[in-house]
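In full, the data.
>
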Amino acid sequence: QVQLVESGGGLVQAGGSLRLSCAASRDIFSMRAVGWYRQAPGKQRELVARVISGGSTNYADSVKGRFTISRDSVLYLQMNSLKPEDTAVYYCYAAHWSGDYWGQGTQVTVSS
């Protein structure tokens, strides 16, 4: 079992920045993959960014150059130049040998 707890969401104006954090109950580096997904109202959950166990990263085209995923003992998502279309609930995700796990989500709202 892996518990994930996100923090750092909130309300920000367009062009602003936020940093999301995800604390895991197991070593982040023991995961096969960790990442961030988001779900906007009326839309499907989509990948934002992820880190594979070897260290390679993937980003959604819509966030490339604006968002950065990183990890130490915590998983982070630095979000810069935020746009209203980034408004969504952001979920932390971890793929572990025991299964796939999700956090409870944190709301990010970007006002125009």
Remarks:
- The chain has a mean pLDDT of 96.
- The CA atoms of residues 50 and 58 lie 5 Å apart.
- The longest strand covers residues 88-96.
- The two ends are 40 Å apart (CA to CA).
